[in-house]
Amino acid sequence: MDPRTGQAVGEPIPESTEEQVAAIVEAAATAGRAWRAASAADRAAVLESVADALLASADDLWRAADTETALGEVRLRGEIGRSAGQFRLFAEVLRDGGYVDAIIDHADPGLTPPRPDIRRMNQPLPGVVGVFAASNFPFAFSVAGGDTASALAAGCAVVVKAHPGHPVLSELVATVVRRALPAPELLGLVQGADAGRYLVQHPSVAAVGFTGSIHGGQAIQRLINERPDPIPFYGELGSVNPVVVLPSALDGDVAALASGFAGSLTLGVGQFCTNPGLLFVPDDDTLIKAIADAVAATTGGPMLTPKIRDGYEEGVARLALGAVPLASGQDDALAGGVVAAGSGVTASGGATSGGVVSGGAMSGGAASGGAMSSSAAPGGALAGDISGIGDAVPQVFVTDMDNFAGRLPDLAEECFGPAALVVKYGDVSKVGDVLESLPGSLTATVHATDPAEAEQIVPVLTRLAGRVIWNGWPTGVAVCWAMHHGGPWPASTSPAHTSVGATAISRWLAPVAYQSWPEALLPLELRDANPLNVPRRVDGVR
Amino acid sequence: MDPRTGQAVGEPIPESTEEQVAAIVEAAATAGRAWRAASAADRAAVLESVADALLASADDLWRAADTETALGEVRLRGEIGRSAGQFRLFAEVLRDGGYVDAIIDHADPGLTPPRPDIRRMNQPLPGVVGVFAASNFPFAFSVAGGDTASALAAGCAVVVKAHPGHPVLSELVATVVRRALPAPELLGLVQGADAGRYLVQHPSVAAVGFTGSIHGGQAIQRLINERPDPIPFYGELGSVNPVVVLPSALDGDVAALASGFAGSLTLGVGQFCTNPGLLFVPDDDTLIKAIADAVAATTGGPMLTPKIRDGYEEGVARLALGAVPLASGQDDALAGGVVAAGSGVTASGGATSGGVVSGGAMSGGAASGGAMSSSAAPGGALAGDISGIGDAVPQVFVTDMDNFAGRLPDLAEECFGPAALVVKYGDVSKVGDVLESLPGSLTATVHATDPAEAEQIVPVLTRLAGRVIWNGWPTGVAVCWAMHHGGPWPASTSPAHTSVGATAISRWLAPVAYQSWPEALLPLELRDANPLNVPRRVDGVR
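Predict the joint structure of the above. Result:
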């Protein structure tokens, strides 16, 4: 379906039957044996071929994606570059070899008791990785996204459950990627909700990756709980991404702070898991007016699917029940605007560090100023009549700390889309206690000009979120060695793991220890001569 | 209860109520805040004090343990040394600093999009670690065991659910450890099955460690599945630990092979999770006779609890239904023997590499030779009348490959205790296929004189088990940097993690990424000057 018109496009894609899913998983498992046995260098070369294939098909790919997502050429080309960059980063990870975490303890017959020779390194999980694609990144978190790239890098075959928001694109991407793989069965693709159930319950599936809603993640967890074996489930779910503006931030550029917030909030029509949904601010009229003005200058756009749009309306209604409207953005459709959703996102090209720039998505448009009336908040301004599935309009609400604390957890629940709640505090010493009571998030952000002012809340923030940000905005997740994109529940199902960055590969690995093992049968990474020159710890010393 | 007499000893230990468990967990959570904030060096010093305290109380501790477990002075002193050694190893891990996995990517404004400064390191999980103690290692896998040591090292407070097999010892060990902690609440102790339920469902518990049966692990997993948040569960469960004797092994010392097997099988009355329960051998009369003779020369002893003894009887009966008895050991009680269970275990002293020596536990006794009659197998010879809860007698059965393959999974189920099944193969090329169909194990062992002979089955073994052993025996788990004590389900609930060795600490850690964070607020491990000199990856380079 085209989100701009609400019309179906192309032929319907049939849903996969249970038999089809089983055949696809079993073919992947068989192909996975040879892939698992391939050297890291061979796997790296294949990943680079996949990156090349994606870039070579970028013209076809962005058009197919735009038809089903309405995300626009600039954003989509950038996202293809980011996806290719992820494959390249994992090729680099494989060549480096540190991902196997090689550890060698030589035999020590002088110890009591004597110690045999023990050598340990990571190996691919013994089975197929199931991946659930996300709606909001049709490349970077979908068929050729980070879960697929990291699982293939680890040495596992992958079967993706396509997102129903872009089924045609999913088939096209799979075809492009398969051309670069030594066996097409290494990347399976299944369609339909039932197919997802068959996938996670197939005995050959060894782990599952997922990016989506808390509700969706819980449903998959329940299906996994029905298995006899409790396979790992790496879900990246919902996150409200609190931002704390400390009093010293008022000494800085307040207008820039307000426009940075509005830009991060409305990037890609707010359809980012790192979108800042909760802003704690000093009770300062100038700042709050600046925020209202900045939000009023933003523009909405079509959301990805009717389900996401409905969820946004529900979330806005929940906020409207507990807080007062502060400002809303413009309705792109009603304004006759042509700014596609997310068009402000900078293309990332093919760099391995590709990522979405934060704060760069301020759409043009005149400030409407002031707060809209409470009664108008949940309904009218949300959906433009002339667009297919209805444009979403940015909506920001405001309340005070006592009201917020009294309406938890409702007011801290994620509203997926360009909506946020501004919470005014009088006494900064109470902010830490309220942060303690929030659910886990992917990110937590501080704005301040004086680091000392943040000392008290830093321990709270690092328990609350997987990434903490100083004087920045949470949208924009750099693909690099140090990135951690995860966090305590409900931000993720497994707080120790990330779905973005080099260490995402560790989700699909498990160690094997070799005791008194003959040199000729050891993996190259564990042989005395270290022929691959991988980083190792030997007898306790790195 | 004293396993030697079956009589209750001391005053009954009351079970913890729900209110008591909540108070203990909440006190641990509060004390955990300061512990989490303590430097790695300060935590290391505390761990070494705990090691000193355990060794200083060894005289009292082994006596208390012997009363409840009948494991004997030599084994128990050795195990106290091993436990102290684990605390010392984790002190070393903390001072090394590699456990935080520090990664720094400096800002790169020249990239498209520009990359901010991102620095990542592991932090303690935000909450209390719940630990379920095991029966069979009253020190090394109990209140002061590896789970507790690694969780305290990580920076988490711990609440242990005592094993009902040694409740008095558990209280004594907790008292000894607490004297060395900065706050006694950092190590809570609860008693009773209901207390375990309250513990895993308490909202302040962030992760759970467990060593025990598959059935017990599944019960805990179900309780965790009822939580709103899916906390990590690290269970080390059942394992049949297959051993493959390849044809070339017949060129070696067959008698030593047979006695090594019998020794590993009967070590500690077979009450080891790494006990070799399944032995694939060429259909060779000399080898099989040697195995029968070696087993007949072993002696049984009292098991830890009546429940474990009953489980052993059931397991032996299951084997007797599907296979033929090959040999049994002597009944220590009927023979009037005084060899305490596991007395052959070498004391490990205080070395960090302390471990149980494999193959050193052959009790004396005349070989009875030959196979006992099938009808006598399950019942009579199992329990000596004059001992308290009944001595277990080693029992080994034999069958061929076709019968074995036809009775899976029954014949590959773990029988906790000194029982094993010998499977004779005619065609070595079929061994790999049968190994493919086994459940996951902690270990898999190969005996051969020619490494080339094992090439075909190595890929199968490394998918099947977390540790592979060459010409050795699986009992004996060295505490060192490279150890991996885990494996695919049902060996463990989380194949990527180990419960023994330096990397066991990673179970209780999760990364936090700091983006554009001020130097003054960064942890020392991530500051530019690297004042703690921890191993790091900076801009992709180690």
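Chain B touches chain A through 95 residues (CB under 8 Å).
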